[in-house]
Design goal:
Blueprint (H helix, E strand, L loop, with lengths): L3 E5 L7 H13 L2 E7 L3 E6 L5 E7 L1 H5 L1 H10 L3 E6 L2 E7 L14 H36 L5 H33 L2
Antiparallel strand pairs: 1-3, 2-3, 4-6, 5-6
């Protein structure tokens, strides 16, 4: 049986909770997460199946002071794995947790703050790309009579739909969390 394996999985920047559950499930199945790279290729090593909680944190400011940032989590028993796509990956065996299952966020307000950082760090730049590149090119393809115009029009419509879907999913999760906090 192989000692290593790779899997292709695509998670949007708003799907960090799904990604955490995916990594935990793999560890329970005996595959320890080693790293992730583009385009969504996850690397695993064979291990003894165990219940291990994986947590992702999006904190660009923390990366500026990486040693202190990582040490803060280590002091709480979290193992640092890697940074990818703006997220830092951590894990901790449930057996090392005291009583209830721990998270790197101590409350929903901290989780909401992370969502704000994701929005400011990732969505604003994507919005600028949408406004400056995709929408003008989409409008140009509607007026264009070239033979390749329908292909480019379809491509830009797909990009617009994808961006809209990801934004709606992120907005929905943000709204649910704010509602849960009563804000």
């Amino acid at each position: 049986m192989p000692e290593r394996k790779t899997e292709l999985r695509i998670f949007t920047i708003a799907d960090w909770e799904k990604e955490e559950r995916y990594l935990r499930k793999r560890h329970r199945e005996g595959w320890k997460f080693v790293k992730v790279g583009l385009p969504g290729i996850y690397h695993f090593e064979k291990c003894v199946p165990a219940d291990v909680v994986y947590q992702l944190d999006y904190n660009q400011d923390g990366l500026a002071y990486k040693d202190e940032y990582v040490q803060m989590f280590r002091d709480c028993g979290w193992e640092y794995i890697q940074d990818f796509g703006g997220y830092s990956y951590f894990r901790k065996p449930v057996s090392q947790m005291q009583g209830e299952e721990e998270e790197i966020f101590c409350d929903d307000a901290s989780r909401l703050d992370m969502m704000r950082r994701v929005f400011a760090g990732r969505y604003l730049s994507v919005f600028i790309i949408l406004v400056l590149l995709i929408l003008p090119n989409l409008a140009a393809q509607f007026r264009c009579a070239d033979a390749d115009a329908p292909v480019l029009l379809a491509l830009f419509l797909i990009l617009l739909a994808l961006y809209g879907w990801v934004t709606a999913m992120f907005g929905y999760r943000y709204w649910k969390l704010r509602k849960r906090l009563g804000k």
